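User
Class, as today's exercise, I want you to study this protein, comparing sequence with structure tokens, and judge whether sequence predicts the tokens.
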Amino acid sequence: MTTAVTGATGNLGGLVVDALIERGVAPAEIVAVVRNADKASALADRGVVIRVADYSDTAALTSALAGVDKLLLVSGSEVGQRIAQHNNVIDAAEAAGVSLIAYTSLLAADTSGISLAPEHKATEERLTASSIPAVFLRNGWYWENYLGSLAQTIESGVLLGAAGNGKLAAASRADFAEAAAAVLTLDGQGGKVYELGGSERLTYGELADVISEISGKSIVYKDLAESEYAAILQGAGLPDFVAAMLASADAGISRGELDTDSGDLQALIGRASTPAAQVLRAAV
């Protein structure tokens, strides 16, 4: 049985390939769908099949998915273009005769008010209408999302955000990748929806305490309005749409939209998720 992973040279896709191999899937039975074959040389050296296709090229995607049984559609990185791109992948999977699509969505994608949610919801709706059975991997937030600002947070002694007192059930990127690999190696997954969140559910005040612990410095959380936080991120040099997305995510945390106690992640990976301190300490 052949399993394909899109975006296989990306941060998440590459970890999924690793996790599949760890679970005993032969590299020759894994198809890495990538945009740049040169970046996939390490995967090729391990015996993984490399096929080149861009999310915008349905013909190339159809060729890349030939003979594939199960497909992990890793959501694209080009926010604003993902509905069309994901539809291209689904169209290609239908044409190629794929038997299952697993899609990396967003926690509570069908009800979330976070700005990232509509594209995920639309993709889920397209998959529901597809002739191919689909499983939704509704990923929560990654602890790695806080690494880019970690040095500044420690230097200033202030964790900025707009999350209020909302709980965040985050986990490591590798945890979510392991969950995806588990689903891809199980039978009877069509129609399932997994709400994936970490064992550790922290407020930003509690996250500040974790950063204090690992850095040896006193860190406090300063809560801001969503618009004020977005403006600060823009002032720090982030593109406007990225700043707005991060501020929207924080607002979603304040509403409980990146929190879950479903236990789905833990059940799939067979353990508690990776603590924030472990992920952040590695960066410090």
